[in-house]
Design goal:
The complex is a heterodimer. By secondary structure, chain A is mainly β. Chain A has strands at residues 3-6, 11-14, 19-21, 23-26, 32-38, 44-50, 56-59, 62-65, 75-77, 86-94, 97-100, 104-109. Chain A has no helices and twelve strands. In chain B, the strands form two sheets. In chain B, strands 2, 4, 5, 6, 9, 10 and 11 form a seven-stranded mixed beta sheet that branches. In chain B, strands 1-3-8-7 form a four-stranded antiparallel beta sheet, with no helix packed on it. Classes of the chains: A mainly beta, B mainly beta.
């Protein structure tokens, strides 16, 4: 069946550091891939998405590229800010259901 | 445009009590979902609906029931609450299958 594996956290970075959160997936067919972000006390909200191989999703300085050959969708940001502190979820959608990774908590220190 | 709303925000139940969580969306979405979020386990799908009058089981449906009598509302019921149902519950909706989901703010439920 479909599955998503993302790196365990927490990840702690200093402000302006480079961020990578790894995400790999297993799926049949051609799923859509997503990154969602959850700020404290809130629901998840979409950060970016990609619907086919080699697509790059981007938003608010975050990027992720749909790599079918490595079954990966790693999240990157060149310079993180304190306000980026949150939990990040990689997700895969194929059919009626979306499969979420376990989440990676990011702490950014000033 | 409120998006997805959930009531209540917090609730404490005793074992064996029942309750209903209400989810409402104003985006005319066909698909609606109920998830539970537990530490270290991400989100797990409880039940979902692909349109008014339809419901289907997700990954962890036992102990829960749902109804979708109106397109904009999706109700989650606990008939006899157990401590294992202590969790944060999120409702979500999407325009169609495979598209991005819009989440409500969550309901924190504690069962003692």
């Amino acid at each position: 069946g479909n599955s998503v594996t993302q790196m365990e956290g927490p990840v702690t970075l200093s402000e302006e550091a480079f961020l990578t959160i790894n995400c790999t997936y297993t799926a049949t067919g051609y799923p859509s891939l997503f990154w969602y972000v959850q700020y404290p006390g809130e629901g998840l909200q979409l950060l970016l998405k990609a619907t086919k191989a080699d697509d790059k999703g981007s938003n608010k300085g975050f990027e992720a590229t749909y790599r079918k050959e490595t079954t990966s969708f790693h999240l990157e940001k060149g310079s993180v800010q304190v306000s980026d502190s949150a939990v990040y979820f990689c997700a895969l959608s194929g059919g009626f259901k979306t499969i979420f990774g376990a989440g990676t908590r990011l702490f950014v220190k000033a | 445009n409120a998006g997805v709303t959930q009531t209540p925000k917090f609730r404490v139940l005793k074992t064996g009590q029942s309750m209903t969580l209400l989810c409402a969306q104003d985006m005319n979405h066909e698909y609606m979902y109920w998830y539970r979020q537990d530490p270290g386990m991400g989100l797990r799908l409880i039940h979902y609906s692909v349109g008014e009058g339809t419901t289907a089981k997700g990954e962890v449906p036992d102990g829960y029931n749902v109804s979708r009598l109106k397109k904009q509302n999706f109700l989650l019921g606990l008939e006899s609450a157990a401590p294992s149902q202590t969790s944060v519950y999120f409702c979500a909706s999407s325009l169609d299958r495979g598209s991005e989901q819009y989440f409500g703010p969550g309901t924190r439920l504690t069962v003692t």
